[in-house]
Amino acid sequence: MSLKDFFRKFARKKTSTTEQFRENSADVTCDFVIIGSGFGGSVAAMRLAQKGYSVAVLEAGKRWKAEDFPKSNWDLRKYAWIPLLKCFGIQRISLLKEVMVLHGAGVGGGSLVYANTLMQPDSKVFDSWPKSVDWKAELEPKYVEAKKMLGVTTNPMMLEAEKALKVVSIKMKAEATFHPTEVGVYFGEAGKKAADPYFSGAGPERSGCTGCGGCLVGCRHNAKNTLDKNYLYFAEKWGTAIHPATTAVQIIPEEKGGYEVKTRSTTSWFKKKGRTFHAKNVVVSAGVLGTVDLLFKNKSVYNTLPNISDQLGNDVRTNGESLLGATGFDKNRDMSKGIAIGAAFHPDENTKIEAVKYPSGSNAMRTLSVPLTPDGTRLTRPLKMMFAVVKRFPKLVRVWFARDWAKQSVILLVMQKADQKMKLVMKKTGLLRRPKLAGAPSENPVPSYLPVAQKAAGALAEELKGEPQNVISEVLLGRPATAHILGGCMIGDDASKGVINTQHEVFNYPGLYVCDGSVTPSNLGVNPSLTITALAERFAAQFPAANDDLYKQRQITYTADKKPSPCGGKGACGSGCDGCGAKKDPAPTPPAPPAPPAP
After folding, report:
1. Greater model confidence, 568 or 350
2. How far apart are CA 338 and CA 347, in angstroms?
3. What's the Rg (C-alpha) of the chain?
4. 291 or 586: which carries more pLDDT confidence?
5. Cα torsion at 482, 483, 488, 494 (round to 10°)?
6. List of residues 6+ apart from 145 with CB closer than 8 A
7. Rounded distance, CA 147 to CA 127, Å?
8. What's the pLDDT tens digit per position in 305-326?
9. What is the domain partition of the chain in residue ranges?
10. What's phi and psi for 180, nearest 5 deg?
């Protein structure tokens, strides 16, 4: 390409952006504005649209098609979220003072980059939730609904990483607890397109899982049940307008009732100002960091929502997590095949350990690993790590220069139900003293060292005949790493105990709601996506239908609920199956013949 052609292409791109903002300059008025499109926002969008409300969804990230996802996590432009470098990928990594958080971005939120794992927690976790609600009873039917919508099934691919984890469970005397995971993946014929398998043909076309292990870099095979394949698919089908690359900035109460939401472009450096939205109701579903940051700024920076409870940012939890792993030296043993998380076990009643994998070639996460290091203070543990490097240097060189680290490695995701927590606060940082979200310690702080996790990593390394590893933030900075941050906008019975009430409405602000992982009142000890979905189903159920006729027309018929057809769906058996429709009236029983005369 000549220099002239390059500048001509750049000029066209710039003009296109300008035209886009001119088109987007008009205000939008609707019944609900939903900020975020993850497991909270997508459920709310679909259920409200189903009931006939007008809905707009604001998503900071981009919209993705299956073929757009990166082939590996080295493709930073598509994988990583680094706005300063014009990288608007699906994986965010936020390093705060007290924690390192892995979270998602894009239309579909964390579902684009999560590991498909949809597990229901032990009902005992609800014991610490507000007592005014019977959470177990209210959420149980919502879990059932969520599982149908997300296509939950048992992982059938028990391959090398799962086999290695089973050996670890045996070494830790917990083999009886080893089990395949419950996941949201379509396990049809590998790579073959199929009509919608979940919603009686009303959903999108899908393809069977190929077992490539690429779930965590975005499924390029259309097999992963991301939110754009279910909740958001129907939300848009029923009129919801999704606005990607749009960041909510201010939420302003209007005198006549409702709210004004001001936005900016996420992806533009110059044309920042976006549309203004007006709605009777606003649902904040931007994930823990996004939601808490937005509400803090509107409470104390812009002063548009000054009466939000001072509980904002309190009781933030990491789901009791630690990230570790091991890299083996047997190049013929491929740990990357299957799905991202295929199996788990419980070394004790409070801990769950899962085996995590990346696809072959996706070696970028190697940069976050350091040698497995004993416990210590923020001063002594880095020193111990340096000693470990010297002591194990030859083996570590083999790890650092492994040609295909992902193929030879298994990551361990360790989760606990222990009630350890931290705070999120708004601080002015940097040369410009801009307000920025930061972590802060609290009573019973979150540890960066879990003995049971270290033991599991050591056992895994033995099985792989390789080297165990910690994540760098836990060792060098004393900051735990989590892929499932929770809390910060707690449910409470009043403003002295939480930010929102049991119906998710922000105290002192009628019509302003929060619906995402930030409302979760405890660690769950399992992957939280299913619980967030169930909470969102419960939240959306409180609103009456705006249009009864539309609501009746928009009921979902799940393929799994259909009755089997004895006649093959030809409508001939009259059994009441879905092939026949309504059950036919049985033919009248003929009268019994008269008894023969007595001899």
Report:
1. 350
2. 23
3. 26
4. 291
5. -110
6. 534, 537
7. 23
8. 999 999 999 999 999 999 999 9
9. 18-63+225-313+488-555, 82-105+152-222+318-484
10. -70, 155
Q: Are 144 and 135 in contact (CB under 8 A)?
A: no
Phi-psi region of 213 (alpha: psi -120 to 50; beta: other; left: phi over 0): left
Which amino acid belongs to residue 39? F
For strands 259-265 and 246-253, give the pairing: antiparallel
Split at pLDDT 50, 70, 90, the class of 431 is low
Place 273 in a pLDDT band, splitting at 50, 70 and 90: confident
Q: What is the distance, to the nearest Å, from the Cα of residue 510 to the centroid of all Cα atoms in its chain?
A: 27
Report long-range pairs for 251-259 (Cβ below 8 Å, ≥24 apart): 251/282, 251/284, 251/294, 251/298, 251/304, 251/305, 251/512, 252/304, 253/304, 253/305, 253/509, 254/278, 257/511, 258/511, 259/33, 259/511, 259/512
**What's at 541, amino acid-wise?**
A
Please tell me the pTM assigned to this model: 0.90
pLDDT tens digit sequence for 197-225: 999 999 999 999 999 999 999 999 999 99
pLDDT in tens, 451-483: 999 999 999 999 999 999 999 999 999 999 999
Residue 234 has pLDDT above 60, yes or no: yes
Look at the chain and count its residues.
599
* Average pLDDT score over residue span 130-150: 97
Mean predicted lDDT score pLDDT of the chain = 90
191, 221 in Cβ contact below 8 A? yes
Tell the residue number behind the tokens 């919209």, with chain if given: 63
Which residue, chain included where needed, has tokens 């610490």? 128
Q: Tokens for 426, please give them.
A: 């708004």
Instruction: Report strand pairing: 409-416 vs 322-328.
Output: antiparallel
Are 34 and 56 in contact by the 8 Å Cβ rule? The answer is yes
Pick the CATH number of 18-63+225-313+488-555 from 3.50.50.60, 3.40.630.10, 3.40.50.620, 3.40.50.300: 3.50.50.60
- Alpha-carbon gap, residue 162 to 395, rounded angstroms: 24
Q: Round to whole Å and give the CA distance between 431 and 345.
A: 47
Catalytic residues: 484
The residue behind tokens 């360790």 is 414
Q: What percent of the chain has pLDDT over 90?
A: 83
Residue type, 208: G
Provide the sign of the torsion angle of the four alpha carbons 110, 115, 116, 118, taken in this order: negative
Tokens 């597990």 found at: 119
Query: Which H or E run includes 263?
Result: strand 259-265
Residue with tokens 């980059």: 113
User: By the 8 A CB rule, do 456 and 356 touch?
Assistant: no
Say which residue the tokens 């003995």 belong to. Answer: 451
